[in-house]
From TrEMBL:
Highest classification ranks of the organism: Bacteria, Pseudomonadati, Bacteroidota, Flavobacteriia, Flavobacteriales
Coiled coil: none
Keyword Transmembrane helix applies: yes
TM ranges: 6-29, 50-70, 76-97, 104-121
InterPro entries the UniProt entry points to: DUF1304
Record keywords, A-Z: Membrane, Transmembrane, Transmembrane helix
Protein name: DUF1304 domain-containing protein
Length: 122
């Protein structure tokens, strides 16, 4: 049962990062303005390339988490999931300190929960 829960959390984190990819790469100047209301509206267009680069990194994190589901060896699969969840957690912790505390709760907390659960079942 706990394996199902940890896999669901891993998928949720991956889906969140696919959403971040879409938002930052393809909807930065439209939907991005609604999501990031505290960001100055006049800076969305000039930072479009930077946001797209951030989105690409989020896509790599999501792809790594999804990849962990296709690895036949359960120990390797757990290690890959742990690596990418740790990357997400570190990014979320850094973002929480440097940008907004909300980033910590949206990004780092789910990843940290996943890390703890993966370590628990090992």
């Amino acid at each position: 049962m706990i394996l199902i829960i940890v896999k669901v959390i891993t998928v949720i984190v991956a889906l969140m990062h696919f959403y971040f990819l879409w938002l930052e790469m393809f909807a930065w100047t439209t939907k991005g303005k609604k999501v990031f209301r505290n960001f100055p509206a006049d800076l969305f267009e000039p930072t479009k390339s930077m946001a797209a680069n951030q989105g690409l990194y989020n896509g790599f994190l999501a792809a790594g988490l999804i990849w962990s589901f296709f690895i036949g060896n359960p120990l390797w699969a757990a290690n890959v999931a742990l690596f990418f969840l740790t990357c997400v957690a570190i990014a979320g912790i850094y973002g929480g300190f440097s940008v907004s505390k909300k980033i910590f709760f949206v990004q780092a907390v789910p990843a940290l929960i996943g890390i703890v659960l993966w370590l628990f079942i090992r």
